[in-house]
Amino acid sequence: MRPLRNVIYVQTQNAWLHKDNENLVLKVDKETKARVPIHKLQGLVCFGQVTISPYLMAHCAENGITITFLNMFGKYLARVEGPASGNVLLRRTQHITGHNVEKSVAIAQTMLTGKLYNQRYVIRRYLRDHSEKINDEKILIDLQVAEKRLTRCLTQLTDCKTIDTLMGREGEAAQVYFGVFNHLIRQADFEFDSRRRRPPTDPVNALLSFFYTLLTHDCRSALETTGLDPASGFLHQLRSGRPSLALDMAEEFRPMVDRFVLSLINKRQVVSKDFETWPNGSMTLKDEPRKTLLAAWQDRKQDNLFHPWFEETVPIGLLPWLQAQILARFLRGDCDSYVPFLWK
Amino acid sequence: MIKQVALEPIYLSRLQHYLYCSRQFALIELENIWIENQFTAEGQVLHQRVNQADQQKRGAVRTARALRLANAELRIEGVADVVEYHQQADGTEIPFPIEYKRGKPKAHRADEVQLCAQALCLEEMHGVAIPEGALFYGEVRRRHPVIFDAELRNLTLQTIIACRDIVQTNITPHAIYQARKCNGCSLIDQCHPKDFGKSASAWLAAQLKKD
Ligand code: SF4
């Protein structure tokens, strides 16, 4: 198993990163604040005003460490990576498969199967852990109904013959799922109405958007490492600059982010005063809480989960990488279908 | 399938991979699967060898180290650890390849095939017939003579053809799990020989039915 290397999130504003022997050194105003061995690194994610020396960049590029720049609010800006990995044959097969409607639908369908399955797991898990504590009959029934409807959506996915119908089913499932999402929140100051993306205007949506961005970054790195082209997806339409395949792959993991966000809220690891509102109505995390939550996210990635296809217990952080491997093996003809990660 | 330019040479060291497992060869050759330990180590060794290229003469034997070899017709190339040139009575020289191996002599013929492939390169480069060479095993610290007879030459040619076939068709052979082989294989984590033996679609359908 590939060891889970670390992703470092640099949030210190006006930080200067450079290489000193085999170490990455973070300085602010010429003063050294941190020093990390580079060989332990998988990725470097920089928020806002962070500057990197060309030597460090070159070293990262040569060693397959990807550097991602996000603005202070976690919006993706740019990415630095080394020469494309030598896997041109795999990429070509991927692109050819992308032109084949039937095959693309089959892949997209299995990926969404993973998403819906895992969304249902979030609800099931809540019902399992909290049924006795739910005093409100209506909430209990709502959740049970949602669980059943998701099961139906799951079976209906199998009949879809086009990307559009798949997207339609996925949309239905999202309505069901986010329709009861507020029931899963047990803190009065956090209210979830519906999924709002651009820009998020409430704390729950702000948290979801923030961690979805990080999830997509991880999926992208995993695909890149495996030699797949993150820009060429099957479910998401190709658009220049958009990591379509990373977005495809993120689908099956979104419910894991959802549950992570729910636990942050329910355990009061995040509170409403951790957010600030901007003149356009958008809401973002303040600096300090963002740091704490990133650390919590890093910790979460070290937790182990059972991977039913590999029949092995693996750290969460490795999941995108394992799924990228399954996809690559499928494209190469090693197996007759892609299999998503099923959360059990 | 996608055709690759057929002229790319096969590296001598890759023949051993093929003889160990044809899928392992394909994973490395076609898929550039990165094996941290083995691959980087190999690269470093190659690097060191190239840097150390030299030759010496002692009596009737001229010794060349880290000699680059190629056979244009077979389209194979690589680096020989050591080639001794043995001077004959008539003044001509017969190359005598020697390959250094860690460990001890093995049951399979991968090391002999690699050495024989070196001889095939040297024969083309120098236009002479090479009857034998030697393997030097670190653990037993002894030279094992290897005779390049018809059988070994045949096995070597078959191996080269089979490797080229994989490169040209761009098809990675399916995994077949064999405990003895796979458990000692540095690619086992990327290859997943057990998992990709089962039907993925049937597995997924069964999981969905279960609950
Ligand atoms: S794990 Fe087994 S099947 Fe896979 S490459 Fe290694 S030896 Fe071959």
From TrEMBL, chain A:
It comes from the Bacteria. This is CRISPR-associated endonuclease Cas1. CDD domains: Cas1_I-C (cd09721). Its cofactor is Mg(2+); Mn(2+). Pfam families: Cas_Cas1. Mn(2+) binds at residues 170, 236, 251. One of its GO terms (molecular function) is hydrolase activity. Its EC number is 3.1.-.-. It comes from Nitrosomonas ureae. InterPro entries: Cas1, CRISPR-assoc_Cas1, CRISPR-assoc_Cas1_C, CRISPR-assoc_Cas1_DVULG, CRISPR-assoc_Cas1_N.
From TrEMBL, chain B:
Gene3D superfamilies: 3.90.320.10. Keywords: Antiviral defense, Exonuclease, Hydrolase, Iron, Iron-sulfur, Manganese, Metal-binding, Nuclease. It comes from the Bacteria. One of its GO terms (molecular function) is metal ion binding. It is an enzyme of class 3 (hydrolase). Its cofactor is iron-sulfur cluster; [4Fe-4S] cluster; Mg(2+); Mn(2+). InterPro entries: Cas4_exonuclease (IPR051827), CRISPR-assoc_prot_Cas4 (IPR013343), Dna2/Cas4_DUF83 (IPR022765), PDDEXK-like_dom_sf (IPR011604). Its EC number is 3.1.12.1. Residues 13-192 form the DUF83 domain. Mg(2+) or Mn(2+) required for ssDNA cleavage activity. One of its GO terms (biological process) is defense response to virus. Belongs to the CRISPR-associated exonuclease Cas4 family. CRISPR (clustered regularly interspaced short palindromic repeat) is an adaptive immune system that provides protection against mobile genetic elements (viruses, transposable elements and conjugative plasmids). CRISPR clusters contain sequences complementary to antecedent mobile elements and target invading nucleic acids. CRISPR clusters are transcribed and processed into CRISPR RNA (crRNA). This is CRISPR-associated exonuclease Cas4.
